[in-house]
Design a protein that fits this description.
Layout lengths: L1 H25 L3 E7 L18 H8 L2 E7 L5 H10 L14 E3 L6 H7 L3 E5 L6 E3 L13 E3 L7 H11 L6 E6 L11 H4 L17 H31 L5 E7 L14 H4 E7 L9 E2 L3 E2 L3 H8 L14 H5 L12 E6 L14 E6 L2 E6 L17 H10 L4 H11 L5 E5 L17 H17 L11 H4 L30 E2 L7 H10 L3 H10 L3 E2 L1
Parallel strand pairs: 1-7, 1-8, 2-10, 2-11, 3-5, 4-6, 4-7, 16-17
Antiparallel strand pairs: 2-9, 8-9, 12-13, 13-14, 14-15
This protein binds calcium ion.
Calcium ion binds next to loops.
Length: 540
């Protein structure tokens, strides 16, 4: 009898533990998505950058995977953040593909799926920004990334994470977006040097002047990367103390390249290539250095996949979950053959508030850049797209010194040809344009065909005779006066560039920006509406 009882007990125990382990396997992971603002590749100490110390990033990389070829979909904040949330390229995101614009109601975001799927979703710091979220029909998830935890204390985002963890429903898995404004400019000049950092540790890329002032600017930038990382270190510690670290998929990356000339704002590597590390307990192997091409549009499908949540048809990105589970390159195919990125309007920098449209294809070896409006200045008519004042002044001051400094100026601020082709395997900074070189014509044709096919398939308005729609979109930040023929007004659709079928939320016409516009121009709201309708706009 005793023996029988013991057996029964053993069987019950076994069933129970196997239930737990099955349940544990099926348990959707918590997700911590940590994203810095303007941190370029390879600026983390795990990549060997000596002027910056990032123990948090390095910890994730060491106990997980580190990635060498992760590319944003756009080289500025709001367009790329929109691509992360929708899983689509910027030319598929209508006005959310421009900077400081509207995030239209019709765009689907993966975070909605997380909320519907039973996740607790929260965020702190910089989320989708800058811009205005279209509130039409958006009843849940009004700020796009769940409950928002606000703080002005840039060193204290980890406390907001702690608050979120405390308040959340402990029965649910969570998704938390930790955005920071680091290392976005402006910097306190000399703060990096004052902190004990050394000028000689900086690697100045060859397209920037190598001077003490520029090196010091890099140190200020590094100090701000470290503030982001300090928050991350604290968050890792909190998860560990709670016993949740190994159940949490942690992604660390940045929203675009470093804020320097020819980098942020440019559809080149330096504008879009960013650091990334991922840790997920023992769910994925560790210790691999990943060279696969990955796009920021791949986050949405990957995270839905990891959380066992359904995808949605509009997603253009591709899940890289399989890659995380099998990172060994000897045992699988490369993840992507090519990826794409581009840009439209960033800040107000040209007459009529025109943007600088670019579409780029990147393969392992090549980068083909298509500048669609080569008669416009890439950093704006008055360099307004260049926030790096110290570096810009050095470039301007040195520009007539010699051939090399002149090229530096032209590369940063001069007009660009319609096409630029770079062999990144021998020219890693993309400075020697091969587009006119006959030896590369075959390569050019192959890449240009791939790029055009992608854009046509994605219904990019630039490839469908409706490119002007990009110039019609309102900007919800300051507009500079450039004496254009069709001047733009803050927060107002530029009627001259409206395209047939374009959708415009009617309630916006009651905004402060519109009342200023109507007052300034003498146009009435009714006349304006009639004009939009006569162009085929759909008001909703
Ligand atoms: Ca940014």
């Amino acid at each position: 009898m005793f023996r029988y009882r013991w057996l029964l007990f053993a069987v019950i125990c076994l069933t129970f533990t196997s239930c737990i382990s099955n349940k544990d396997k099926r348990r959707p992971p918590n997700i911590l998505f940590a994203i810095s603002d303007d941190q370029g590749f390879p600026h983390a100490s795990a990549y060997g950058a000596n002027f910056v110390e990032t123990p948090g990033f390095d910890h994730i990389a060491e106990e997980g995977l580190i990635f060498n070829n992760v590319y944003c979909a756009a080289p500025q904040c709001s367009p790329n953040r929109a691509s992360i949330l929708t899983g689509r390229y910027l030319w598929q995101n209508s006005e959310a593909g421009t900077h400081a614009s509207l995030f239209p109601a019709h765009l689907k975001v993966f975070t909605d799926r997380f909320i519907e799927g039973g996740y607790d979703v929260g965020s702190t710091g910089k989320t989708w920004s800058p811009g205005l979220i279209d509130s039409t029909n958006r009843i849940v998830n009004k700020k796009l990334i769940g409950k928002y935890f606000n703080t002005e204390d840039q060193t204290g985002y980890w406390k907001e994470f702690q608050k979120f963890l405390h308040e959340r429903d402990k029965e649910k898995p969570f998704f938390f977006w930790f955005g920071t404004y680091d290392p976005h400019r402006p910097y306190q000049a000399g703060s990096g040097l004052d902190s004990g950092k050394r000028l000689e540790d900086v690697d100045v890329p060859p397209y920037l002047p190598d001077s003490e002032a520029v090196r010091s600017d890099f140190l200020d930038y590094a100090l701000r990367i470290e503030r982001f990382d300090c928050n991350l270190v604290k968050m890792i510690g909190i998860l560990e103390a709670m016993g949740e670290l190994d159940h949490t998929l942690i992604i660390v990356t940045s929203d675009n390249g470093m804020p320097f000339p020819r980098a942020k704002g440019n559809a080149y590597d330096a504008g879009v290539r960013v650091p990334m590390a991922i840790r997920w307990g023992d769910q994925i192997p560790s210790g691999y250095v990943m060279d696969d091409l990955i796009s920021h549009i791949d986050f949405a499908p990957t995270l839905l996949d990891a959380a066992h949540l359904p995808q949605y048809d509009e997603i253009e990105g591709k899940s890289f979950l399989e890659l995380l589970l099998q990172p060994d390159p000897a045992k699988r195919k490369p993840f992507r053959k090519a990826l794409f990125y581009g840009r439209e309007r960033a800040t107000s920098a040209r007459p009529n508030n025109f943007g600088y449209p670019v579409r780029t294809i990147r393969t392992e070896q090549y980068q083909l850049v298509w500048n669609l409006k080569p008669d416009r200045f890439p950093a704006g008519d008055r360099f307004n797209e260049s926030e790096a004042i110290v570096v810009k002044n050095e470039i301007l001051n040195q520009k007539e010194l010699n051939f090399r400094t002149r090229k530096m100026y032209d590369d940063a601020y001069g007009l660009r040809p319609e096409f630029e082709l770079y062999d990144m395997s021998v020219d890693p900074f993309g400075l020697d344009n091969l587009a006119e070189d006959q030896a590369y014509w075959k390569v050019f044709d192959r890449l240009f065909t791939m790029l055009k096919k992608q854009l046509i398939d994605n219904e990019d308005p630039r490839l469908h005779g409706e490119g002007d729609v990009w110039e019609s979109y309102p900007r919800f930040m300051g507009i500079r006066n450039f004496n254009g023929e069709y001047p733009a007004h803050r927060g107002v659709y530029n009627e001259h560039f409206i395209q047939s079928g374009q959708r415009i939320p009617l309630y916006l016409l009651d905004s402060k920006d519109y009342s200023n516009y109507f007052e300034e121009t003498g146009i009435t709201k009714d006349i304006y509406i009639e004009r939009l309708k006569s162009k085929g706009a759909i008001l909703y």
